[in-house]
Write a structure and sequence with these properties.
phosphoprotein; AAA+_ATPase; 6-stranded antiparallel β-sheet; Rossmann fold; binds adenosine-5'-triphosphate; Beta-Lactamase
């Protein structure tokens, strides 16, 4: 019954139903009541008749005898009346203690013992009315308090899980539960929000059961769980006790699973239609088979509008948090990019071959042409890419970098194009790909030669159509991105070997820039060495005046397989070791390069390229005592980035037999 249908201020109940099978008594009562101004809605001799009258016209109060004609007693009817919140007063001659005990359990508003006086009846009715009105007033106040507290739960500066726990706690005094589920009907693919369950483990203690914990407790895989969720039928507002609960569990595999896992025997559920047209369930479970009564459901229905509002606002807060987290991530990424960004002036060198490269940069930068930078490892390809971006009209937008060699194949696609939430196992949140991040700016695809063949058509499509599709996404997203790619492989050779698509090669090779190796521009060596020494001196806080004459000669005579990166690392090592401002190279410039022994191998013994590369990686790992990073690590010996080496190791299925990093 809706609360506002009860007039709590009325002076006396207007209509009274008499349930009495002794006609004389019923008649006497009718006369007394009418004289006192009440209206008698009917006289029923049986429970069935009483229910019939109640359904036609709801009385304000029922006077009922315990012993009645028919199979059911007044106590049976009393249980029905309390479910429907109709107050009642017993009227009986029976003083048997067991019957009295049973009657007391139904919480009557009064008890009249036959024979009764007129005055007793009228006083009993007055008291019953007062108590009933008072209890309604109390209920109204309690519900108002609950609504206020639900609204307060919104302003909690806590996460989604904590807020839902607060909501669960608030309900416990009103609707007892051992397990409560709050969450969207489908998760995690179709809704951005996770559902949480709260398992009562103490008076006010709850264990939060998130999706992962639930999967662990039920030993289910995510796939199986998703499958179960897809079989869950729509559940309207309902209560299930005892046999009803057993029956609903047969239809609803999720309820059955929850019931089995937490030994639950009754359930009360209400769906809320959220503003985003989703369904959000509030579901209570109890270990008792008869916990939920119509008054609980009635309370929930009365609370439905404010609950829906609460959930809508919680969802909105969560969405805002997610969006700002995404922005934070993108911002951090961009800031890092900016911090590490170098400008044109930091490219050291005046050799004719490098000046030719500068010319190319000047020419191509203002256009939107795709640039392909080719050169050995460590020759400064990334620096050139930045210079092109910094001199283009896109310079105020981001330069986003992706190293195609540093990621396992299955992640590159989502790194490049992003993914929708739930697109694959582990895609817990939506992710914006690098192409989207680079919108309006430039994307730098380093080590493009390592891009797996199966992804090459997708990249080709972006270059041709300027559209990307997120993994698991439904539509295309327009991306205005300039592409700069770099490789230390001979891409043309890769095409011939069938490892790189010809059509993609032509798309990328619109404006090639070839960076000469350091050994072919020896005039840049000394300026580069001085530049690095100044940088290192600043970093180490040491005074360094330069390299000794013999050291300079050593540099000039070396063939620099690792190019400028190798030079930089060598000088860093020497500066750290040096005890004087003038630096003397102590290490032999052939020893730390593993290329030398390979180069000195018999030229008649030629290994396939892949095998040679694998052997080289293994040799470097061994020489570095299986250390990848840092000074003297395998990455440095190979003159490649540690992340690149790690990706190569995964691809070649090389495991580190010792962990020294
Ligand atoms: N001309 C240059 N002037 C100053 N520093 C340079 C120059 N060329 C390269 N460097 C420095 O040498 C290091 C290696 O350069 P970079 O990472 O650009 O090489 P890369 O060709 O992209 O290497 P990889 O093929 O391994 O990706 C960087 O620290 C870079 O700043």
């Amino acid at each position: 019954m809706p609360l506002n249908a009860i007039n709590v201020n009325q002076e006396s109940p207007q209509t009274i139903l008499l349930v009495e099978d002794e006609f004389a008594v019923a008649n006497d009562l009718q006369i007394i009541l009418k004289k006192a101004g009440y209206r008698v809605s009917g006289i029923a001799f049986t429970v069935e008749k009483a229910l019939e009258i109640i359904h036609q016209q709801r009385p304000d109060l029922v006077l009922l005898d315990i012993h009645l004609k028919g199979a059911q007693t007044g106590i049976d009817l009393a249980w029905q009346l309390s479910k429907e919140a109709i107050p009642f007063v017993y009227l009986s001659a029976n003083t048997n203690t067991s019957i009295l005990e049973q009657a007391k359990m139904t919480k009557p508003y009064g008890f009249l013992v036959k024979p009764f006086r007129e005055k007793d009846v009228l006083v009993a009715l007055e008291i019953a009315h007062y108590r009933h009105a008072h209890s309604i007033e109390l209920q109204v106040r309690q519900e108002q308090a609950l609504q206020i507290k639900l609204t307060d739960a919104l302003s909690e500066r806590s996460n989604w899980e904590q807020r839902l726990l607060t909501v669960a706690r608030l309900f416990q005094p009103y609707i007892p539960f051992d397990y409560m589920v709050l969450g969207p009907e489908r998760e995690p693919t179709q809704n951005a929000f996770r559902s949480y369950s709260f398992f009562r483990i103490g008076l006010d203690d709850y264990q939060t059961i998130g999706t992962n914990t639930f999967l662990q407790m039920t030993s289910l895989s995510m796939e199986k769980y998703q499958q179960i969720l897809s079989q869950v039928p729509y559940d309207g507002e309902a209560l299930y006790n005892g046999a009803d609960f057993v029956a609903i569990c047969r239809q609803n595999p999720l309820k059955a699973l929850i019931a089995k896992t937490f030994r639950l025997e009754s359930n009360l559920t209400i769906p809320l239609k959220t503003a985003q047209n989703g369904t959000f369930y509030v579901s209570f479970f109890s270990r008792q088979p008869d916990t939920y009564q119509p008054n609980h459901l009635a309370l929930l229905l009365r609370m439905q509008p404010s609950l829906t509002l609460t959930v809508d606002r919680l969802l909105a807060f969560d969405k805002i948090e997610q969006l700002s987290e995404q922005l934070r991530q993108e911002n951090t990424y961009l800031l890092e990019e900016v911090k590490t960004g170098a400008n044109f002036e930091e490219i050291i060198g005046t050799s004719p071959s490098l000046l030719a490269v500068f010319n190319s940069i000047e020419q191509v930068a203002p256009t939107d042409y795709t640039v392909l930078i080719q050169g050995e490892t460590g020759t400064g390809k990334e620096l050139i890419a930045r210079a092109v971006h910094n001199r283009s009209t896109r310079k105020t937008k981001a330069l986003i970098k992706l190293n195609c060699a540093a990621l396992p194949t299955n992640l590159i696609e989502s790194e490049l194009f992003g993914h929708e939430k739930g697109a694959f196992t582990g895609a817990v949140d939506k992710r914006v790909g690098k192409f989207e991040l680079a919108h309006g700016g430039t994307i730098f695809l380093d080590e493009i030669g390592e891009l797996p063949l199966e992804l090459q058509p997708k990249l080709l499509r972006v270059l041709q159509e300027k559209e990307i599709e997120r993994v698991g996404g439904k539509g295309s997203i327009y991306c205005d991105v300039r592409v700069i790619a770099a490789t230390n492989r001979d891409l043309h050779q890769e095409v011939i070997a069938g490892r790189f698509r010809q059509d993609l090669f032509y798309r990328l090779n619109v404006f090639p820039i070839n960076l000469p190796p350091l050994r072919d521009r020896r005039e840049d060596l000394i300026p580069l060495a001085n530049f690095f020494l100044a940088k290192i001196a600043k970093k180490l806080g040491k005074r360094l005046t330069g390299l000794s004459k013999t050291s300079l000669e050593q540099l000039q005579n070396y063939h620099w397989p690792g190019n400028i990166r190798e030079l930089e690392h060598l000088l860093e090592r020497a500066a750290i070791m040096s005890t004087t401002p003038e630096i003397f190279l102590r290490e032999s410039l052939t020893t730390h390069s593993i290329s030398t022994p390979l180069a000195s191998q018999s030229t008649t013994f030629v290994k396939p390229f892949d095998q040679a590369e694998r052997d080289n990686v293994l040799a470097a790992l061994k020489q570095a005592n299986y250390r990848i990073r840092g000074k003297g690590g395998a990455a440095e010996l190979l003159n490649i980035k540690p992340t690149t080496l790690e990706a190569k190791m995964i691809r070649m299925d090389i495991k580190r037999s010792k962990s020294a990093d």
